[in-house]
Specification:
heterodimer; A: about 525 residues; alpha+beta; twelve-stranded mixed β-sheet; about 30% helix; B: about 325 residues; mainly alpha; two-stranded antiparallel ribbon; 14 helices; globular
Chain lengths: ~525, ~325
């Protein structure tokens, strides 16, 4: 106890002083001009090229910019590049924006683009990932003058400008290449974006300040604070009490009560699809048995069975009841109307009689048993959808036993081949990217079919998709993609279920919030209310 | 001499405990799933991406080799790098510790005196209306699920009345090289609801313990002698009853404090309090093995240290413990 006495008064006074000092800015968040956002996205790292996940890219898009943007209709718009054109099948020229400065004051030029591409292609080591596929086709990149970038590709890559809508441009350091550790440790992130980096605490918050020298004009907010609140109820509570101005990923069931409390809500159909996928390759499947529990040959190889199950799926219930209206019934990979979608593909109403008939024709008059697997808590309505689909399949005699698992467990088991039919979800910048990974025949050499876990193969579709992918971005390419989609969907390799909606709630300090189908949450999407 | 052998014995036990804990934790998190699917974006990654990441994380090795590599790293003072955040795992845990420490401390500063006091009073007047109310209230406080209690506190304290913030840590001030909330008014304000959510079940637990202890001690001969000697009720209660019932109370305070440090998961999640519990549950969900292992180790060390402290306290509180050793 001897130690305590001389120490205590000092501790006490330190405490009192700091309470006094600390209480001066008692409500720092209320300062005018600060935007406070509650987000479900947890920024993992300050390296903009570490992982291609919305969690990172959404928040880092305040600091870093891209050569090309995708607008709300997924059309390409100039970013750091003002124009781009193909010089030949394998050559591209990008003209860069003049008088753009990085946050540290250095000028942005073509060499920074070269550095960015080289860093992703040659330097970054796994586990960072997801970006390399965008630059893997690039043979060489050069800067003939400070505002021109010349890119030579191995083959024709008509989608190259689209790929640049996902790559954040970094500033070439005076020497070497910055590692992820460098960027995370102190080294302030240095981009050209509308907001400067102030501070970051992993899993807690990201603070940004206005970049007054931004080329696109003065940003709306003097400060932006992101608070990571993963629990949806807590996000809703923070918005209800006015602690934040914007809260993203609002559960559909909370929309009504939020509106009652005076908050407003914006929503948009996500550029993504959730679906049921069949394993059509193996001869027997785990969990798929006849009614007495004996294993049977893989029924999903028969297109009639897939067609019957599609006809017996009630998408209306999923959209109206499970997603409370905040979803769009799906018949293809993107919501109708976005580039590359087919206007002819519309979700069908369930037809149980015809489904039963088809099933009988395929040799299963009494149906069969299966385990329908899926992740829980990953996508809006995921685990509930398993139940609903299982119930509607039961009406044609197919007894589906729903098996929901945490996303990481689900993935491990799916990769191990433990499932015969499952619920999944995917997103991408464009229709062709989803078709390429989800439905094209698996081919490691061409990089197709990475998500085609069902090992579906359709040569006619592969040829149509390859032809569409060789056409330059534009209406012709979109029409070819729509045709290819029509062909493949007729064979039912997957059952598209729904495109869920991104929902964002905002308070009275916000005039409007423009949602993007890719689901990012940014300060740039908010317009302050007139005061 | 005796003290040293006791201390060595304790250290040995602690060491064995840590080994056992690390084995169980390691095998447990390994069997949940493959972390690689959380590191790469499964919706866009190619099989090569996944393969390359698997090798980079050392996940292609057999589990015993991975475990040995982990132990080797720990011995050299390194828990590895978080798969998800790409920060050193141990530093990550330590950066979340102050938040949890202050939350748990404030919750216990509320719960321990309040619980003990209420229990003493109730035990002294057992059978009265006050006693019966306390017993009933404590049963319900203990049986309420903590997520519901937290939600109700948010509903009443934040949404309906608007008095208190619904979550987050508020502003912090730097002290001893760490950021603390309790040093600023705004931070203290943010502490109230989560601290209450943690404290309420503990008040109930401590009150029940101290009530039953009081009833027992009040019927012992020495209390009767005290009363016969003419000591005031208050003096008996605080000078004689309290020390006699304090050993189990200190034990439970130690255990509960450790529990709050480690497993305030629900409260931290609902109030988005950036503490160790939340880090642990996030990391388990994302299968971020280095962070899970670092957190478990820190928690295990904290429990061992707390238990040692509790034992020391016995000696301070109860002369019999001192004599027997």
């Amino acid at each position: 106890m001897k130690l305590g006495s001389p120490f205590r008064p000092r501790l006490l006074s330190a405490l009192l002083i700091s309470i006094f000092l600390g209480s001066a800015p008692a409500t720092p968040a209320q300062e005018r001009g600060e935007l406070r956002i509650a987000t479900s996205y947890k920024l993992m790292t300050l390296d903009p090229q570490y992982a291609n996940l919305n969690e990172n890219t959404s928040l880092l898009s305040h600091i870093y910019e891209r050569l090309v943007y995708q607008d709300e209709n997924l059309e390409l718009k100039p970013g750091l590049a003002t124009s781009w054109r193909p010089l030949s099948d394998t050559q591209w020229a990008f003209k860069l924006r003049d008088k753009v400065r990085f946050h540290d004051g250095s000028a942005f030029d073509a060499d920074d683009v070269v550095y960015t591409i080289e860093r992703i292609r040659d330097f970054l080591k796994p586990p960072s990932g997801g970006f390399r596929s965008y630059v893997s086709g690039i043979k060489s990149v050069s800067a003939p003058d400070p505002l021109t970038v010349l890119i030579e590709t191995d083959g024709a890559v008509p989608n190259l400008p689209l790929f640049f809508s996902s790559l954040f441009v970094m500033n070439r350091p005076s020497e070497g290449v910055e590692t992820t550790e460098d960027l995370n440790a102190g080294h302030p992130p240095n981009g050209t974006g509308p907001y400067r980096f102030e501070s970051w605490s992993s899993g807690e918050s990201l603070r940004l300040a206005r970049n007054d020298d931004y080329w696109g004009g003065k940003p709306a907010w003097s400060k932006v604070t992101f608070r990571v609140i993963e629990n949806p109820a807590a996000r809703v509570a923070a918005l209800s009490t006015g602690e934040v101005d914007v809260a993203d990923a609002i559960p559909a069931r909370d929309v009504a009560s939020l509106k009652e409390r005076g908050a407003r809500v914006a929503s948009v159909g996500a550029a993504r699809v959730n679906f049921v996928q069949f394993d059509v390759a193996r001869d027997t499947l785990p969990g798929v048995t006849d009614k007495s529990g004996e294993p049977i040959a893989n029924p999903f190889k028969n297109p009639l069975v897939r067609r019957a199950l599609t006809l017996a799926t009630d998408r209306g219930i999923l959209v109206d009841k499970i997603l409370a209206g905040y979803g769009t019934a799906a018949a293809q990979v993107f919501p109708n109307g976005l580039p590359g979608t087919s206007a002819k593909l519309l979700p069908e109403a369930p037809n149980y009689d015809e489904a039963k008939m088809l099933l009988a024709k395929a040799g299963f008059p009494d149906g069969f048993n299966l385990v329908l697997a899926g992740p829980a808590g990953r996508y809006p309505g995921d685990a509930e959808s398993l139940q609903a689909v299982a119930q509607s399949w039961a009406r044609i005699g197919v007894n589906a036993q729903p098996a929901a698992a945490p996303f990481s467990v689900f993935n491990t088991k799916r990769a191990a081949g433990d499932y015969g039919v499952w619920y999944g979800g995917t997103s991408g910048e464009a229709v062709d990217i989803i078709l390429h990974t989800l439905l094209a025949s698996p081919d490691p050499e061409r990089g197709t079919g990475a998500l085609n876990f069902g090992k579906y193969r359709n040569e006619a579709f592969d040829a149509m998709l390859a032809r569409a992918e060789s056409i330059a971005v534009g209406p012709e390419r979109n029409a070819a993609l729509a045709q290819a989609t029509e062909l493949v969907m007729a064979d039912q390799p997957i059952i598209p279920l729904y495109h869920f909606h991104h929902i964002v709630g905002y308070g009275s300090r916000i005039g409007s919030y423009v949602l993007h189908p890719r689901g990012w949450t940014t300060a740039m999407q908010t317009l302050p209310a007139m005061e | 001499m005796g003290m040293i052998s006791v201390a060595l014995g304790r250290l040995g036990q602690a060491f064995l405990l840590l080994i056992a804990m690390s084995l169980i934790g390691f095998i447990g998190i390994h069997s949940v799933g493959n972390p690689v699917f959380n590191v790469v974006n499964i919706e866009t990654a190619t099989p090569e991406d996944i393969h390359a990441a698997t090798i980079a994380l050392g996940l292609d090795q057999p589990i015993w080799r991975q475990y040995l590599a982990f132990i080797g790293n720990v011995v050299s003072g390194n828990f590895g790098t978080s798969y998800i955040y790409h920060l050193p795992a141990f530093e990550l845990v330590m950066s979340k510790l102050p938040a949890t420490l202050e939350l748990a401390s404030i919750a216990m500063l509320i719960a321990a005196p309040l619980g003990t006091g209420l229990g003493l009073l109730a035990g002294r007047r057992s059978g009265t209306l006050f006693d019966r109310t306390l017993v009933k209230a404590s049963v319900s406080a203990l049986s309420i699920p903590s997520f519901w209690l937290a939600m109700m506190l948010i509903l009443v304290g934040a949404i309906l009345t608007g008095w208190l913030p619904s979550g987050g840590r508020g502003s912090t001030a730097s002290f001893l090289g760490q950021e603390w909330s309790f040093l600023t008014a705004n931070g203290l304000w943010h502490l109230v609801l989560p601290a209450l959510a943690l404290a309420i079940p503990n008040i109930a637990l401590i009150a029940r313990l101290s009530r039953s202890g009081t009833i027992e001690v009040e019927n012992l001969d020495f209390t009767r002698f005290c009363r016969a000697k003419g000591l005031s009720a208050r003096r008996i209660l605080f000078r004689h009853t309290l020390p006699n019932i304090s050993v189990p109370i200190v034990t439970i305070i130690g255990l509960q404090f450790g529990g709050m440090l480690a497993f305030a998961v629900v409260v931290e999640t609902i109030f988005s309090w950036p503490g160790v519990g939340k880090l642990l549950i996030d990391s388990i969900q994302l299968l971020d093995r280095p962070v899970v292992m670092a957190t478990l180790t820190v928690i295990a060390v904290a429990f061992v240290a707390l238990n040692a402290l509790v034992d020391l306290f016995y000696a301070v509180l109860d002369p019999r413990v001192r004599l027997s050793s």
